[in-house]
Amino acid sequence: MKKHFANLNRLAAPHKGNPLKASPMLVLQEFFNYASPAEHAKAFDEFCRAALKEKYCWRRGSPGNALHYAGQLERLIEAAYLLYKDRRSYHTKQKQHNTALYVDAIPCLKAFFRQASPAKWKNWLHIFTTAALSHQSAADDMKPVAIYAFITHLQQLLRMAAAIVNKNE
User: Fold this and answer.
1) pLDDT tens track for 49-72
2) Is the CB of residue 58 less than 8 Å from the CB of residue 144?
3) Is this structure's pTM higher than 0.90?
4) How far is CA 91 from the centre of its chain?
5) What is the tens place of the pLDDT at every residue in 84-133?
6) What distance in Å separates the CA atoms of residue 133 and residue 45, rounded to the nearest whole number?
7) Which of 42, 71, 82, 143 is close enough to 24 for a disulfide, judged by CB 3.0 to 4.6 Å?
8) Closest by Cα among 130, 117, 116 to 4
9) Are the C-beta atoms of residues 23 and 90 closer than 8 Å to each other?
């Protein structure tokens, strides 16, 4: 496995240890089959609010729901990374219709992964998940600039992924 695909454990698990067998488009479709873009935006907002409070305030069911949602966000990040790293072969595998919708996503993917590596995104996600399920705030472990980057770039990634899935249907 290539070195830059080493941090794709959520996609590797169901694909016999090889995340390259995962279809990023299928992962995105599954993500939005689970909930609509509006529901994901609301869930992400509530996830961030819970992570930034200095007390336990997760209100979307059991703590397991927060863990599940964090896992879904991790799969989203990994699928986006596969699209970002494999954009040339994606271009050749897909025909004109899908290529056009992917071209619109390139600037968002570039900005997302220039901001941080997949390992860093996953670290930030872990900090937010731990904080959402505890009496501490993510602000205890992250600088304000990193918190802002995490929230704004993930919101953009959610919108971009929703647009790709919407155009692909």
Assistant:
1) 999 999 988 888 889 999 999 999
2) no
3) no
4) 22
5) 887 654 444 444 445 555 677 888 899 999 999 999 999 999 999 999 99
6) 15
7) 82
8) 117
9) no
